[in-house]
Design brief:
single chain; 170 residues; alpha/beta; eleven-stranded parallel sheet; 3 helices; 11 strands; globular; disordered N terminus
């Protein structure tokens, strides 16, 4: 809803008080950064399906799905739900299974009780994890798409876990 200012000359057109009111809806949705935020005081029970990034600082029970975007659980966030997204970042408490098509991060104050499956994982020191981890390789189709897009692993160094453990132990 736009707010209009009263002018002293009745023949002049009224101007919108907000510059956002001047932008057509199609332009503002394309140019603005859109996201969904569940604030600290909000409690949701049910299914959340999002077509934009989701930030959870409140409480969610059920399921969260954002297949093309990131789901971030803030430090104050409390989630009892299965989460499916391109990227998942946990800084609060999560009880449920995670399916991150690209990446899952558990930060130092984050906690996960449940299983997770992803292609890339990052767990900071101090994070809590109780469950199984399934790190998947990219399928042949996905690898072909990466090669076509010019994405490669140049500059990436991989170490077998046994060598890494021996190096840390010595």
């Amino acid at each position: 809803m736009a707010t209009f200012a009263q002018t002293s000359n009745p023949k002049t057109a009224q101007q919108p008080a907000s510059p956002l009111a001047e932008i057509p809806a199609s332009q503002s949705s394309a140019t603005a950064n859109q996201y969904s935020m569940i604030g600290k005081s909000i409690k949701i029970k049910g299914e959340i399906v999002a077509s934009d990034p989701v930030y959870v600082y409140g409480s969610v029970e059920g399921s969260i799905s954002a297949p093309e975007h990131r789901v971030t659980i803030g430090k104050e966030g409390r989630v009892k739900a299965d989460i499916s997204a391109r990227e998942i970042v946990i800084m609060g408490d999560v009880c449920g299974n995670l399916e991150g098509s690209e990446r899952v991060e558990i930060r130092n104050e984050g906690a996960l009780m449940g299983n997770l499956a992803t292609r890339r994982i990052y767990i900071e020191e101090g994070a809590a994890l109780s469950g199984t981890i399934d790190v998947r390789k990219a399928s042949k189709k996905e690898k072909a798409e990466q090669d076509e897009a010019g994405l490669d692993r140049k500059g990436v160094v991989s170490f077998p876990v046994t060598e890494l453990v021996e190096e840390i132990a010595s």
